[in-house]
Amino acid sequence: YGQHLLVYEFHKNGSQHDFIHLPDEYSKPLIWNSRVKIALGTARALEYLHEVSPPSVVHKNIKSANILLDTELNPHLSDSGLASYIPNADQVILQNFGT
């Protein structure tokens, strides 16, 4: 009670990091079209969080281990534990974030 949980859909391909660095006997190297698809999908997700979502959200932990890949290699952002809401999108952010 009083706890909040995030539940993510299971993605068979795991994270982008695992897909690239921990290949199994069934995996194939990512072709350039797939790499571009993952990069554009991730960029669109970030654009949504920053520009469309009310209120705006800053993820603050984008890395290959936090990008989940579904069976069609569509990216899904995960691990939003460090995310912050921006109460007023017109506000200027003066602090740098990153890892």
TrEMBL record:
It is found in: Cell membrane. It is a lipid-anchor. Pfam families: PK_Tyr_Ser-Thr (PF07714). InterPro entries: Kinase-like_dom_sf, Prot_kinase_dom, Ser-Thr/Tyr_kinase_cat_dom. GO terms for cellular component: plasma membrane. Keywords: Kinase, Lipoprotein, Membrane, Receptor, Serine/threonine-protein kinase, Transferase. It comes from the Eukaryota. PANTHER family: OS07G0668900 PROTEIN, SERINE_THREONINE-PROTEIN KINASE PBL27. This is Protein STRUBBELIG-RECEPTOR FAMILY 7. It comes from Glycine soja (Wild soybean).
